[in-house]
Amino acid sequence: MKLADTAAVASEQVEVPGGHLTVRGLGLDSMMFLLRTHGEPLRTAYQNALDDKLEPAAAQAAVLSMIAETPTLMACIIACGCGEPDEWERALSLPLVAQLDAIEKILRLTTEAEGGPKKLMETLVRLLQLLGRPAA
Questions:
Q1: CA distance readout (Å), 23 to 10, 20, 80, 104, 106
Q2: How far apart are CA 117 and CA 60, in angstroms?
Q3: Is residue 83 classed as helix, strand or coil in its secondary structure?
């Protein structure tokens, strides 16, 4: 099989003033960008999820809490989900409803692609270990 033969990445539309944005789940490139720019809040969310034994509801609550406390992280997630990480300031200026819709769809697409919240957290742990950083 060739890479060109693989299925297209799932995406969804987010309504914004004047049109719509196409968002996708986050891949390795986006995860690396987010770890470089917002590593500490991501590690805190990971630790909070670990404390609750990576139950899906705990993982989701940890991520939502982290996003609520770090608006620029939310904007970076949206920009990465649009495939334009450098446009995070534009994402920050989107209407609240559009931001929330985008975050919800990006997180859902990301967790579905990884096999659920628990599997996603396990993938992030492996990524941190590959980078030579302690996971918690």
A1: 9, 10, 9, 10, 6
A2: 7
A3: coil
Distance separating alpha carbons of residues 82 and 94, to the nearest angstrom: 13
Distance CA 54, CA 31 (A): 19
**Each residue of 99-125: pLDDT tens digit?**
999 999 998 999 888 888 778 777 777
Per residue in 38-83, pLDDT (tens digit) is 777 777 666 666 666 556 666 666 667 666 768 888 999 999 999 9
CA-closest candidate to residue 70, choices 97, 107, 42, 96: 42
pLDDT of residue 99: 94
